[in-house]
Structures are given as structure tokens and as C-alpha cells.
Design goal:
Strand content: under 5%
Helix content: over 70%
Shape: elongated
Order of helices and strands: HHH
Oligomer: single chain
Radius of gyration: 19 Å
Number of helices: 3
Structural class: mainly alpha
Largest sheet: none
Length: 78
């Protein structure tokens, strides 16, 4: 029971202090940028400006970067 109350108090403190709010915003921004870049790569491929391989490489690069950034946000409890 004591551990539950301690955890509940921690959660309440985080909610009051806004903990995680900045991290949530950063993760949203990272997700939006990732989707935009993936969309641009797909559009460039559809217009035959870049190859399918290059488009996939760009998507893999942005996906990897997004995962790394999100991991860092979680690690630092932003």
C-alpha cells in the first residue's frame, strides 16, 4: 500500500509540475518532421527525381534518427 501511495504521489507531482509535457511536444515535433521528410522522399521518387533505393534510404535514416531522439527524450525524462 505504501509503494502504491508513493507512486501515486510521484504521478501527481509530475502532473502538477508538467513533467513529460516538454518531452511530449518534442516527440510530436520529431514525428511530424519524420513524416514530412518521408513524404517528400516519396514524392520525389514518384516524380522520378530520386530512385526507390534513395527514397528508402532517406526513410530509414529519418526513422532511425526519430527513434534515437525519442530514446534520448525518454532517457532524460523530458
Amino acid at each position: 500500500m505504501g509503494l502504491y501511495m508513493k507512486e501515486l504521489n510521484k504521478v501527481e507531482l509530475e502532473q502538477v509540475s508538467g513533467a513529460g509535457f516538454v518531452g511530449d511536444i518534442l516527440k510530436t515535433v520529431v514525428d511530424v518532421v519524420d513524416r514530412i521528410i518521408d513524404g517528400v522522399a516519396e514524392a520525389l521518387h514518384d516524380k522520378n527525381i530520386i530512385s526507390e533505393s534513395t527514397a528508402k534510404d532517406i526513410e530509414q535514416l529519418t526513422d532511425g534518427a526519430a527513434k534515437l531522439i525519442n530514446y534520448t527524450i525518454d532517457k532524460f525524462d523530458l
